Amino acid sequence: MHKDNHLNQQTDKVTFGFWVYLMTDCVLFASLFATYAVLHTSTFGGPPSFVLFNLPSVLLETLVLLTSSFTSGLALLAAQRHETDKTLDFLGVTFVLGALFLGLELSEFSHLIQSGNSWQASGFLSAFFTLVGTHGLHITVGLIWILVLLVRVYRRGISTATTRKLMIFSLFWHFLDIVWIFIFTFVYLMGML
Amino acid sequence: MQKLTILQEKSEAREGSLKSYTIGFLLSLLLTSIAFLLIWNHVSSYHEVFSHPFLYASLTILSIIQLWVQATFFLHLGRSSQKRWNLIVFLLAVFIVGLIVIGSLWIMNHLNYNMMQMSPHQVEMYMINQSSL
């Protein structure tokens, strides 16, 4: 009983600490959004956003990331029920979807750069690449994190500590999807107006 | 007897959670689709169907609703009692975010205003002309 209580307190502390970190990440993204808001018309004579952005691709990225956020929740649920195989399955799906998202995004970036619209071309593009690129970096770190979790669950199975780690990861992954809501709305959708 | 109680507790939390993730997922899908459809229709009809102010407002509202959906159904914000401190930290972050975003926009808007009352486009053309010298 005493050990259970200790583990619960640990979980609460760790969760709260990670939540505080997530809030600072929030402030970081807010600064990048503010910068983008200020610079998004500074195209320096180059093509505007509605010419550069490919809406179908962005919709696909959005749906892929949203689904991966859903499956990360399912992975956590499976872990809480001590269903090791299901946990591995859902974690794996989350990884594949996340990697797909990243691939689509890198492909988009590559097209922009090769057509001469890199971050060096204008203030608008600097702000765009910094904002969306920072989100992409977070996704990349998340993907590495999934791999580490996969190895841990595969080799050691589900424990209270592992479930806590999975919960922390899913907080991170849900947060990234929430940031993406604002990226696709304010950068891509409003960029078509 | 004890084992049974624990299993019962877990199963209650379990059912609530799968439902919660599924509802959150479906609602988010719906909100995302509405947002994309609005813009898609608008662009396909050569910007005729909706007004820009309407679109800015509805997209903003849609994104805030989806934020709430994902915070509630994915992050489970607002549930247990431990969340009191989480809420305080969240509100602090919201405050700082508001300060930074509104402050930056206000300052930068005033800078453009001071640039001899030129529009952003005029400022750009002026700068391009200067850089070619």
Structure explained in plain terms:
The complex is a heterodimer of chains A (193) and B (133). Chain A is mainly α and 193 residues long. Chain A has six helices and no strands. The mean pLDDT of chain A is 94. With 133 residues, chain B is mainly alpha-helical. Chain B is built from four helices and no strands.
Distance between the termini of chain B: 87 Å
Query: Pairing-aware structural class of the strands and helices of chain B?
Result: mainly alpha
Low-confidence region ranges of chain A: none
Q: What's the rounded overall pLDDT mean of chain B?
A: 79
- Shape by Cα distribution of chain A: elongated
Number of helices of chain B: 4
Number of strands of chain B: 0
User: Fraction of residues of chain B in helices?
Assistant: over 70%
Radius of gyration of chain B: 24 Å
Distance between the termini of chain A: 60 Å
- From N to C, what is the helix and strand string of chain B? HHHH
**Shape assignment of chain B:** flat
- How many helices of chain A? 6
Q: Which chains share the greatest interface?
A: A-B, 49 and 52 residues
What's the oligomerization state? heterodimer
What percentage of residues of chain A falls in helices of 4 or more residues?
A: over 70%
**Beta-strand content of chain A:** under 5%
What key phrases describe this protein's structure?
heterodimer, A: 193 residues, mainly alpha, 6 helices, 84% helix, elongated, B: 133 residues, 0% strand, flat
